Amino acid sequence: MTVYIAKVRDHSGKVLNEKVEAASPEQARSILINRYVAVGKITKSSFNFDLSQLEMALSKVKVKDKAVFSRQFSVMTNAGVAIVRALGILADQAPNPKLKRALLGISAEVQQGNNLSSSMSKYPECFDDLYVSMVEAGEVGGVLDEVLDRLSKLLENIAKLQNQIKSAMTYPVTVGIFAVIAFLGMTIFLIPVFAGIFDQLGAELPALTKFMLWLSSMLRSWRAIIPIVVFMGLSFAFRQYYKTPIGRLQIDAFFLKMPLFGDLNEKSAVARFCRVFGTLTSSGVPVLQCFDIVCSIIGNQVIVNAVQAAKKDVQQGGMISLAIQKEKVFPPLAIQMISIGEETGELDAMMEKVADFYEDEVEQAVKALTSIIEPLMMVGIAVMVGTILLSMYLPMFSIFDQLG
User: How many CB atoms lie within 10 A of CB 156?
Assistant: First the structure.
């Protein structure tokens, strides 16, 4: 994208110099003509970098941003507002700079005669395959406003599910960070004070005290960088291994079996699968294409492999429920409800019900997990602080015994 500067006149009659990013001067004019009364001379900017470009590069379009856009776009199209005008209005009020640029570009593409879905596909960082496929189905069926409404509900549910899982991690992570800070503070600043007292008294130190003094000395020297380097190296190695097919499969399999969090991961993946699959089929997207799209949003390679294997069975004429059952990944209840949906011809509605059920299960699991983690974290912090204090006071007891 190139930055262009154009002389424009707004609705109040003021003449302004407006910056716009576009692939060509013609596209820049198409973008600006929807926002201003008149557009004059357009020139290429001699200095293309500014702070807004950096902000755009660092920004990310979140699920919530797309949900809000979809809801507003649906209302405007349902009210009869032209797509180009609606996109221009929504671009003006979009808080996310990356989404704003995408909407302006899409508006220009549509004004030139391109389909909305094909225009959106040129901005994959904002609109993924799921979004583009549903918009395409809405265009073909002439029910774009209904599809956009379904999309907004789908994205709102996905955002809600993500927030529930994040909330399960927020408390332990926050408490863990403060615990580490407290531990480092006591080890680096408090223990040396006691070390000086022990040296003056010449007391015989127990093993625990010797270890804590050694740890304090290490953390106050250049050797403290060694565990940091080791941690960073292990993190890098873990990320690189996770990028490999076998590594991703093994780690995702562990995530499904790990204590406390495994059940939560499985239920959230099932909820995402059913919610997205049901929304896609109700919008008119072909079933086989639904499988491909769902695989990109599940987030667990074990379940992705199961869905891909199920797709092959369905491709050969099998039922979705039987195909999924073979892989032994989905819970029996979900499989039975999907089977009933296929038998009654209400697969999309049944998928939505399964998604509702497992989203409620995730919410309850998050509450239960939080109630378990809270006391465990408190006990862990108490043990940590108690160990440090005990290591400092044990030599005092021996000194008092000698004095007595």
Answer: 17
Regarding pTM above 0.70, the answer is: no
Tens of pLDDT, residue by residue over 73-129, are: 888 888 888 888 888 888 888 888 888 888 888 888 888 888 888 888 888 888 888
Planar angle of CA 315, 320, 321, nearest 5 degrees: 150
In this structure, which long-range contacts are made by residues 209-217, counting pairs with CB atoms below 8 Å and at least 24 apart in sequence?
209/391, 209/392, 209/394, 209/395, 211/391, 212/187, 212/387, 212/388, 212/391, 212/392, 215/187, 216/187, 216/188, 216/191, 216/192
- Residue 153 is predicted with a pLDDT of 85
**276-293, pLDDT tens digit by residue?**
888 888 888 888 888 888
Read off the tokens for 5.
């500067």
Helix (H, G, I), strand (E, B) or coil at 74: helix
pLDDT of 203 reads 65
Tell me if 306 sits within 8 A of 330, measured CB to CB: yes
Is residue 187 within 8 Å of residue 377, measured between CB atoms? no
Query: Which ranges of 224-286 does DSSP label H, i.e. alpha helix?
Result: 225-243, 245-257, 261-282
Residue for token pair 């032209």: 82
